[in-house]
Amino acid sequence: MVNKRSLEQPNGSKKKKFKLSSGFLDPSTSGVYATCARKHEKQAAQELGLLFEEKVEEMYGDQLENADEKTEIENQESCDSKQKLSIEEEINRELSELQDKNKSKNESKNNKKEVLQFIHLDCECVIFCKTRKPVIPEQFVHSLIENLADPANMEKRTRYIQKLTPITSSCSASMDQLIKLAERVLAPHFHGENGSKHYKFAVEVTRRNFNTFERLDIIKQVVAQVIQNGKYNHEVNLKDYDKLILIECFKNNIGMSVVDGDYSKSYKKYNVQQIYEAKMKEHAKK
Fold it and tell me: Where do Basic and acidic residues bias regions lie (predicted)?
């Protein structure tokens, strides 16, 4: 049973409401897909929003604060430079300065909020949380799942959320754009400094309201980008992989990320519900 207190803010106030923005997913969007119980998409967004907000503060709080401080310093420097102007110019721009300051403050507040933005997909059992820098979806979701899977953490924070899928970046649904996306997302994991290593990898494709390409065509193209005509000594292994390439196809958008082997071996394919059930069974045995 979900602990109601766990859904409240630390100061005991009522839980926040996270609005779902309508629209398609644009190219280069990063974020997290989440599957959830049918007809409970809004409640799932509330649960996930609270979990994500806490995790963002834990992982990136300092970076967000430093970004705000940098903005304030830049604004102050701008004001100082303006003060060197003539008295007449200073008076004429006084109102404009005040408006700029208010605008800057509002933008700073909005930037903090927009680190996480839920997008309404108009699709049953699926929600999407768009993220922006400094959040790195692969690391962000892995750290969150690691915490939820901790045997010492028996508090169930969610009721409707099921599987989480990070999206490092995305593109429009064309083969040319898919190739470019694969180059961006796969390079840090399989090429460059990691190109000399030998990784066993697999590709997992999920398609929703998507019929632009067949699943096998996508897999073939991604595998080709990993190996690059034998330039890299990686091999496909569907059962015992070191790396798994996740591809989410939704309407006119293709998203991609890379996760490690613990995705299936230790973390139930990032299924929050199954992770908790496994902990409960283990706890009951003890």
Answer: 67-82
